[in-house]
Amino acid sequence: MKVQINAKIMLSISMAIFGTLGVFTRNIAVSSGELALYRAILAAALIFVYLIVTKQKIDFRSIKKELLLLLLSGIAMGINWILLFEAYKYTTISAATLSYYFAPVIVTAVCPILFREKLSGKQMVCFLMSTLGLVLITGIGDLSDGNDFIGILFGLGAALFYAIVILLNKFIKNVEGIPRTFLQFLSAIIVLIPYVIMTSGVTLGKLKLTGWANLLIVSFIHTGITYCMYFSSLKELPGQTAAILSYADPLVAVLISVAILGETMTIWQVIGGILILGFTLWNEISPKARS
């Protein structure tokens, strides 16, 4: 019981930290591709140290069998980060985050095709209502200008690639937890290096002290340390409990966006956010867990 309580606390803290990501990324004056690359490099270095200290070994024989899947998931993760960081630049943190949380809905819609899982009536309702929520966020109400819509599209693109990461991980059976994340970071680095060279180039020299501080926080705290906390707590908790606690992320992001940064949301965006989060959460709750 004590182990589960500690795991719940760790997961809640990690998701709350994830919810503050947008605030810090806005203070790092580099391109989204650069930021994704530096995040992956610094976080991978920290996790590598963690693996050595905790004496966790990576089974390289198993990796050979799933190398392509690890590479593809790492590529999807890198693209996911780039699109999410772009979303933060174009629209409010709340709109970007709520659009990003459409990822579980995408997974629900695709699983019947990939895994021959039947879509229940409840799942269909959740899918349709969450989609309606996305429509309300993107297409109705007084979006201040075209940048808001572009930002929401970037957030939805990030959701698509995060869904791809989730789906690819379902096929990876022999590499678990933190070692898997470390290998995915390495895969992301391999792809992001040529992307950055061909686009923005390296501009770290232009960063001021504030930018460096925020970059280190995003890389070590939001990625390295928080990912370790996240995966360490996941193995101690039922999947449904973890899914429910994960909603600390969008809730914290919305609270920071509205209450601290003073960013506005239209009534339609509020309703849309409630529909996405509410019906996605309902989809995660099974009757057995309430008994």
**Cα radius of gyration in angstroms:** 19 Å
Q: List how many beta strands DSSP finds.
A: 0
* Whole-number mean pLDDT: 83
CA distance, first residue to last residue? 18 Å
Low-confidence stretches: none
Helix and strand succession?
HHHHHHHHHHHHHHH
The shape, in one word, is: globular
* Total helical elements: 15
SS class: mainly alpha
Give the strand content: under 5%
| Major β-sheet annotation | none
What percent of the residues sit in helical stretches (DSSP H or I)?
Answer: over 70%
Explain this structure.
This protein has 291 residues and is mainly α. It has one domain. The protein is 79% helix and 0% strand. It contains 15 helices and no strands. It starts with a helix and ends with a helix.
Descriptive keywords:
single chain; mainly alpha; 79% helix
Summary of the model, kept short:
The protein has 291 residues and is mostly helical. The chain contains 15 helices and no strands.
